[in-house]
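cache lookup: miss for this entity combination. No prior model stored, computing from scratch. Input as submitted by user K.M.:
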Amino acid sequence: LAKTTQPISMDSYEGQEVNITCSHNNIATNDYITWYQQFPSQGPRFIIQGYKTKVTNEVASLFIPADRKSSTLSLPRVSLSDTAVYYCLVGENAGNNRKLIWGLGTSLAVNP
Amino acid sequence: EAGVTQSPTHLIKTRGQQATLRCSPISGHTSVYWYQQALGLGLQFLLWYDEGEERNRGNFPPRFSGRQFPNYSSELNVNALELEDSALYLCASPRDRGIAGGMHEQFFGPGTRLTVL
């Protein structure tokens, strides 16, 4: 089972770029890397997904080195509303979701 | 399009009772996933329903069960409630079949907060 390791918490300030790194040493060949954001008492929200190199969308970028044993979620110019828990997941085929391990995530606090 | 809906928002039960939680996926989507999230913890996969059948199950005892109806809405039943069943129960609906080999992008409902006293 692929397992991820993330920092428990991070602090930042409005307008800064935030990079959250996730380690996944046992990632399998077919595994993708997916990041979700969760606010208190709400369901997680999909942010971004990638397999290798770099992926960018309207809210974030995902950097994946060649060995794929880690990944970095980059949030440009964060605001107070980005205060949330961020989860890194690795796996494939959502039909076997019991293989997806949701860790504790990274609690990001954005300060004014 | 309407998102994933869940009811009730909050549910308070006592130990030994049964709880029934409901979920409606995104219109036209056939799959429903159920998760349990205890306070301060990550999500634990519970059940996956697709086309009316249970397709997969997480590491939970049999007193956690459910079903999916012909309109693809789903029900999660928890029998003989225990104090540690207190959690946020989340339902998710995948966007589509996803890219080959990749994980589905999932849309989550707001959750049902179950409190067992």
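stored under new cache key. The mean pLDDT of chain A is 89.
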